[in-house]
Amino acid sequence: MINWLYDNWAKLSLFLAVIATVLIYIFINPHNLPLFLIWLQLPIYLLHQFEEHNWNGFKNYVNRTIFKVKEGDFPLNDKIIFWVNIPIVWILIPIFSCLSSVNIMFGLWIPYFAVLNSLSHVVVSARTREYNPGLLISLILGIPIGIYALIIFYSYINVPVLISAISIFFAVVLHIIVFGIIRRNYKKQSNAH
Length: 193
Prior knowledge:
mainly alpha; globular
C-alpha cells in the first residue's frame, strides 16, 4: 500500500484539490476573507503538487538539473518526495487552517510559505531559462493569490510569523538538498568499493 502511495500521491492531489475547493466554498464563508484565503492555499498547493510531481517531473528535473545525475531515482526518489510533501501540505496546512478558525494568527504562515515556494520556482526558471515542474501553478495561482492574501493580512503581519514562514520554507528546501547530497555521497562510496 505504501509503495502505491509513493507512486500515486501526486495524482491524488488533483482529486483532493477539487474536493477541497468544493468543501471550502461550502463551509468557509468567503466574507471572512482572511480565513477564506488561508483555506484557499490548500487546493492551490494540491494543484501545485500535481503539476510538480505527477509523471515524476520534479524528481527528474532536480536530479538532472541540480544534482547533475543523468537518469534514475537518485538522489531524489519517490519515497523522499512523498515524505517531504505529505506532512506539510496534507497534514500541517489543514491543521493550521482549522486552527485559524479559532485564531487567524495560526494560519498566517501559510500564504508566506506558498509565495516563497512559488517564487523559488520562478527564480530557478529565470536562472536555468527553462520550465521547471510547478512553475505554471506558481505563476497563475500561487504568487497572485498568495500576494493578495498577504496584502489582506497586512494588519496581522508580525516578525515572528514572517520568521516562522521563512524558516519552514527553508527547512523543507534544506531537507531535500541535504538528503539528496547524503544519498549521492552514499552511492559514490558504494560504487567505489
